[in-house]
Specification:
The complex is a heterodimer of chains A (183) and B (768).
Chain A lengths: L19 E2 L3 H10 L3 E5 L13 H12 L3 E3 L3 H7 L6 E2 L2 H8 L15 E5 L3 H14 L4 E4 L10 E2 L6 H16 L3
Parallel strand pairs in A: 1-7, 2-3, 2-5, 3-4, 5-6
Chain B lengths: L1 H16 L21 H10 L1 E4 L5 E2 L7 E2 L12 H35 L16 H7 L6 H20 L9 H30 L10 E4 L10 E5 L3 H13 L7 E5 H10 L4 E4 L4 H7 L4 E4 L8 H8 L2 E4 L9 E2 L5 H11 L3 E2 L3 H15 L10 H8 L7 H5 L6 H9 L4 H9 L5 H5 L6 H5 L8 E4 L7 H13 L5 E4 L9 H12 L3 E5 H6 L11 H4 L9 E5 L4 H15 L8 H11 L2 E5 L5 H12 L4 E3 L8 E4 L8 E4 L4 E4 L9 E3 L3 H10 L8 H18 L23 H11 L10 E2 L16
Helix pairs in contact in B: 2-6, 3-5, 3-6, 3-25, 4-6, 5-6, 6-23, 6-25, 7-8, 7-12, 9-10, 11-12, 13-15, 15-16, 19-23, 23-24, 26-27
Classes of the chains: A alpha/beta (183), B alpha/beta (768).
């Protein structure tokens, strides 16, 4: 029997006001394009490669380039990003960037005002989801999104749990293509 | 007037309890502090290190008005908001931790007073005069006997009741006040732990005033399964020591194997170097399921709640030895031991036996009787391959794994005859068993993993108890000046996110001449990795509390000796009075003692209170990534926060600019990030130019080693003058500082936070 979600705003079965699940790369691209000051927060899980040999970090850099999004390097990712020929816009750990983001007066990594969309990509799901919870509760001025293979309930927008890497890869490639198309 | 009278009466009562008339030191401003007494200190800390909340769920379901939705600024039916609810949770976790240790202390104290009498003298050997720095500082009492420890414990119990009361629906309504209470509970935890371990050292003759304790064997392979095997599990040595006594009295010590899981293992090896360490808590379920243990004896804390069921599955006999966990078993405390043995052997019944000598006698007799009949063998690789074929790699196990493993991937590889991935996963597995519960095909994952378990044995140094006063005298100056770059305390649970991380951290910092101290499961797993010469960190580094030393302090409750060592630096080296003088001690530690706790694999509520207790004392703690699930960190925002401090000599408030230490409770995602962060969190305002240059040398070099080329982004905040720049990076750092427009500034003379917030403590109190 599938669970029926009652008429509460919060799903009382999970105790979490859950993310909107989106599988369509066009819709994802559209949400990113609509943002005025997005930020891409990249984590150490992107230091791994997909079965085709392409480093996940390369997907992240492609997304950032296609949409002109500044990059925040967390954990030890800065070294690899620099090695790939890109200078990250800032270096913070996940909890540090979340701590800054929850301040509405923070001027953001470009000093142009706080961000309105924060995209998490490659952060461990426990740490990532908890940090997204922080933003959900204490940063109402921004929306959050994830690009990871797992569902992140505390985000505003999340991908589903992909069972196959190939499906996820397909999504990422399509997302990049849609972002490259421009408006 | 009535209020003044009440205060006077209370103070008189406290003075009577702490024997204030004995003038070993003047009584400071806060003997036996109650909830509000150190609140101003807490608020000062929380001003810089603000709580960072990461709610697990969006609801409160504590009372029947709920569930209450706390999203989007909503308050619950009682009026609580999401931040305050998180702080309430944190306080509850810290109270559970504090209660576990304090109740352990209470039980062990009762047991030992019955054995030795309340007048049994506390003597920790010739090298330890300040025997109880936490009790002396917090309670204001100098305990001379086991009976004196009871006075301190009664105070802790009373405070726990008040703190728990504040968690009831409809009381405290402010997150910072709940945090202050959590800090209070956690400070009490260090008192409770100190009571427990001092009692154990005195009552069981554990090693004390000695650094070179025996190296004991560790690992499954160390256990001789041809003999009857008794497994003790938990934390309280009242059970295991009595088993060893029984074996000694009956000349059976060489005929029966006694091995331990979790902190009881550490306690047992402090009592007998013949006892073996199976491993940390994460090995509990695996080891129980091998059936190697003929008898499993549980005591308290960190024991699995399904021990009776697991024991029954593999035919191990089982005895619950403490009232904390009786598992619904028949209480056989008053039955005749031989009758219990008969029923356990013939009927395979399990019992609770709350009388340690009786439990020991029964355990030995049962083990000797059933061992010859029991088959103890490992699963073969061929059998594992067959069992693994049921796995469809549906990834359900991956979704519930707290350490986020693709276990199905490992199992499907086993099905193909490849054990490489499962070996790696076994090593990193936290042993919770959730994967197996979730598996729709009932694949016996844990059984299959047996084939991946290493039969290798390792060495762990037996816990040595308090740091000696003589050692404190030697290292006090270099620590506070910064020439010993820091004291790194790796504490608590161990397996998240990778069991090897602990040994790697110990090796990295010991090699760099930091002082490395360990407790609990972290102390065990530090020894579970060998270098290319086959040596563990305990064999590679000296056991001294000195630069480059690796010191196993003991079990969880021995954590009090680490906070105690920090206090002793202030008291013995800096000659600051500690009696009822918590604020001065904590202020000294925060500003001048370059120490950093690392609770890398922290799992329990006890870890929450241990860490938060260190925080109140001014010691920052680095946690592993999963610890974001504790719901709260203490973070600063280095470029925006208030880094002003009082120069106690000049009586001037100075903006030091430097975030030293930057955070009090911090989560790192990876070992690579943690390495430079730990080094950075050892930086203190008090560092001399020479000390600062040494600390920055390690910070920069660890950054380059683990993060990448270039310099740390925040380096400029920690360079006060050119003399602070490490010689080896002089050119590179100077060029960087010039590029960003850095300006030199004067180091603060005698840094203190006293005088920067409302407190009864005068600034002169920090001058020695």
């Amino acid at each position: 029997m599938s669970a029926v979600i009652p008429r509460h705003r919060v799903n009382v079965l999970t105790g979490i006001k859950s993310a909107r699940l989106i599988e369509d790369p066009v819709e994802y691209a559209s949400l990113i394009k609509k943002a005025k000051r997005p930020l891409l927060v990249v984590g150490p899980l992107l230091l791994k490669s997909l079965p085709d040999g392409k480093l996940l970090m390369e997907y992240a850099l492609d997304i950032a380039k296609a949409a002109g999004i500044p990059i925040c390097a967390t954990a030890q990712t800065r070294g690899k990003i620099v090695e790939l020929g890109v200078q990250p816009d800032c270096v913070y750990d996940t909890v540090e960037i979340a701590n800054a983001l929850k301040d509405p007066d923070w001027q953001g990594v470009k000093k142009e005002g706080n961000h309105d969309l924060v995209i998490f990509f490659g952060i461990r799901s426990d740490l990532g989801n908890q940090s997204l919870s922080t933003l959900k509760h204490f940063a109402p001025h921004l929306k959050t999104m994830t690009l990871c293979i797992h569902y992140f309930p505390h985000a505003n927008y999340s991908l589903p749990n992909f069972k196959k890497d190939a499906k996820w890869q397909e999504f990422l490639e399509s997302l990049i293509a849609n972002l490259e198309k421009g408006d | 007037m009535a209020e003044v009278k009440e205060i006077t009466r209370k103070l008189e009562e406290i003075h009577e309890k702490i024997k204030a008339e004995i003038p070993w030191e003047p009584v400071g401003p806060t003997p036996m502090p109650e909830m509000p007494d150190l609140r101003q200190w807490d608020m000062r800390l929380l001003k810089t290190y603000a709580p960072f909340y990461a709610p697990f769920c969006d609801l409160c379901c504590f009372c029947t008005y709920g569930k209450c939705d706390l999203t989007e600024g909503r308050r619950g039916a009682c009026g609580i908001d999401i931040a305050t609810q998180q702080a309430r949770f944190v306080l509850l976790a810290c109270l559970m931790g504090c209660s576990a240790h304090a109740a352990h202390g209470g039980h062990i104290l009762e047991f030992l007073i019955e054995r030795h009498g309340a007048d049994k003298k506390i003597d920790l050997g010739t090298s330890i005069e300040v025997e109880a720095p936490n009790i002396r500082t917090v309670v204001g009492l100098k305990p001379e006997t086991l009976g004196d420890l009871q006075i301190a414990l009664e105070y802790v119990f009373k405070e726990i009741a008040h703190l728990l009361d504040s968690c009831h629906t409809g009381q405290e309504g402010n997150a910072l006040d709940y945090e202050s209470k959590a800090l209070h509970a956690s400070m009490l935890d260090h008192v409770g732990m100190e009571i427990a371990d001092i009692a154990q050292i005195v009552g069981f003759n554990y090693p004390t005033s000695v650094a070179e304790t025996p190296l004991v064997e560790m690992g499954w392979g160390a256990i001789d399964k041809s003999k009857p095997v008794i497994l003790v599990s938990g934390h309280n040595p009242a059970t295991s020591t009595v088993v060893i006594d029984y074996l000694r009295e009956h000349n059976l010590e060489d005929q029966v194997e006694v091995c331990g899981l979790c902190c009881t293992a550490l306690e047992t090896t402090r009592y007998s170097d013949k006892a073996k360490i199976v491993g940390p808590l994460s090995r509990a379920l695996f080891f129980m399921r091998t059936g190697i243990a003929d008898v499993i004896m549980t005591d308290e804390q960190c024991i699995r709640t399904d021990t009776p069921q697991e024991a029954a599955k593999v035919g191990s006999a089982m005895i619950a030895c403490l009232d904390k966990a009786m598992y619904g078993l028949e209480d056989a405390t008053d039955l005749d031991p031989d009758e219990i043995v008969r029923r356990m052997v013939d009927n395979k019944e399990q019992f609770a036996i709350l009388d340690s000598p009786k439990a020991a006698e029964v355990a030995v007799k049962v083990a000797m009787e059933i061992a010859p009949q029991r088959k103890k063998g490992w699963l073969t690789e061929e059998e594992a391959i067959e069992l693994a074929k049921k796995c469809t790699n549906c990834r359900m196990c991956e979704q519930v794994c707290p350490n986020l493993f693709n276990i199905g991937g490992g199992i499907t590889e086993v099905a193909k005859g490849n054990f490489d991935l499962i070996r790696q996963q076994f090593l990193q597995c936290i042993g919770c068993g959730k994967c197996e519960e979730e598996c729709p095909n009932n694949v016996p994952i844990f059984k299959i993993m047996q084939t991946a378990a290493s039969m290798e044995t390792w060495k762990c140094r037996a816990g040595r108890g308090p740091v000696m006063d003589t050692e404190i005298r030697n290292v006090g100056a270099p620590i506070t000046l910064g020439t010993i770059p820091g004291v790194i305390a790796l504490v608590g649970c161990s397996n998240y996110p990778n069991i090897n991380d602990i040994a790697d951290m110990v090796d990295e910092f010991a090699r760099r001449k930091y002082i490395v101290v360990l407790t609990g499961c972290a102390a065990m797993v530090a020894g579970m990795k060998k270098d290319e010469d086959g040596l563990t960190v305990y064999e590679k580094y000296p056991p001294d509390f000195d630069g480059g030393g690796v010191v196993n302090i003991g079990s969880c409750v021995a954590n009090a000796h680490i906070s105690g060592a920090a206090i002793k630096i202030a008291n013995i080296f800096a000659a600051l009075p500690l009696r009822g003088n918590y604020e001065v001690m904590a202020d000294y530690v925060l500003n001048r003692v370059g120490a950093c706790g690392v609770a890398w694999g922290a799992m329990s509520q006890k870890a929450a209170s241990i860490g938060t207790g260190f925080n109140r004392l001014g010691v920052p703690v680095v946690l592993g990534p999963h610890s974001s699930k504790y719901r709260r960190l203490y973070l600063s925002r280095k470029e925006e926060d208030d880094w002003k401090a009082m120069d106690a000599r000049k009586k001037e408030i100075v903006d030091t600019v430097e975030p030293a230490p930057e955070h009090l409770a911090y989560v790192c995602e990876t070992k690579e990030k943690a390495m430079p962060m730990i080094a950075k969190l050892c930086i203190r305002r008090n560092d001399t130019p020479q000390g600062r240059a040494i600390k920055l040398n390690h910070y920069i070099s660890l950054y380059k080693k683990y993060i990448g080329p270039g310099l740390p982004e925040d380096l400029h905040l920690f360079v006060r003058r050119d003399a602070d720049i490490p010689l080896v990076y002089k050119k590179e750092v100077r060029a960087h500082l010039q590029e960003i427009g850095w300006q030199p500034r004067e180091p603060i003379g005698l840094p203190t936070l006293i005088g920067t917030y409302p407190t009864k403590v005068p600034v002169d109190a920090v001058i020695h």
